[in-house]
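Dear Dr. H.,

I hope your travels went smoothly. While you were away I took the liberty of generating a structure for the chain from your last submission, since the lab meeting agenda had it listed for discussion. I wanted you to have the full record in hand beforehand rather than looking at slides cold. The sequence, exactly as received, is reproduced here:
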Amino acid sequence: MWSPGFEPAAMYPARVLGWHRRFSRISVTSWGSPEAPGLCAALHAGGTTWGRILAVPQTGRQEVLEYLNRREAAYLRRQVHVDARIGAGTRRLRVLTYVANPHDPTLAGELAPEKAHTYARHGVGSKGAAFDYVRNTVAALDDDGHATSDAHRFFAMLTR
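The corresponding predicted structure, in token form, is as follows:
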């Protein structure tokens, strides 16, 4: 959402329908290590959440999709419906995203708050600190005008 790894042709705030974001995936590479596991988010069935849709440029489209499939290999690739804010209006679109894979061993499911706190506060991996991952997610939501979310509540718990 805030670090796509490619230059999008366009980016729009969008409400993801039928899915909610939860900090439920243990990271031992990007946002954590085997010695200091981190925590990152996954989309889980049910509810709604805010995010962003990113238009993949036509030039290099195949390479971008291959890159995303490699990077998001722990997740399941799915088409989902979103209500995207485009210009002054809202459009319902069907878009590609990656959702929680219940068979992935790094999916922690419902973590006890103190365990989630430990992972998010102390995890550091190749992309940085898990705390920064949570903070950047909240900042992206704030930038799009969504100042209340589960991500905000989780971040508030981390900063107490």
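Two observations you may find useful: Residues 130-143 form the longest helix (14 residues). Residues 10-149 form a domain with the Hypothetical upf0131 protein ytfp fold (CATH 3.10.490).

With kind regards,
E. W.
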